[in-house]
Amino acid sequence: MALIGFVCSGVPRARAFVETRSVSKSTGANFARVARRCGRVVAMAAEKSDAPTAKFTPGTGKVSKSAEKMKLEPEEVFFDGKPSWTELVVPALTILTVIGIIPFIAAAARQVWVKYRVTSRRIAVDGGFQGKDHVEIVYRDIEEIRYIRRMGGSAADMVIFLRDGAKLELRSVPDFKNIYGFILKQLPEDAREKSQPSF
User: Fold this and answer.
1) Which of 64, 91, 94, 175 has its CA 20 to 30 A from that of 105?
2) Does pLDDT of 16 surpass 50?
3) What's the predicted TM-score (pTM) here?
């Protein structure tokens, strides 16, 4: 028989501890009376180690087996891909000049190593040498977003300002109108109001 021990306090939830040992029925009744006085307690009791999780019902002195498990909504991936290829157009046209070589190499490297991932919970960027650097932010940390459109609006450079003062820059985000519209919907209301509106 399982002994249910618990701590009664003023916090919203009392901590429950389960310890297996033999006890008398009178001892179990004493625990039930104390539980009713505490008002709220969660306990787990099982005769076997593989018994289902139980939920203690305050005020009844009984343990119910109808415990509910909290489930998070599955993460939705809206976009997972590389920067827009259009960032190569202008550098390619100027590659014959000395000035155009460096921008072309930088844009080509981003096409190979940079990857953007936008989901219902976060924005993630893989970049750096061989794509080994990983940056991930959640929407509640975003304070404001600004952008500059490229190639007639098919792509855009986006700067994300965080509440701690840091910022994250995403170059040549493809299908920008749809991606940015999705991001705006995930932002807290104050960040959405500060951010540049969609076009």
Assistant:
1) 175
2) no
3) 0.59
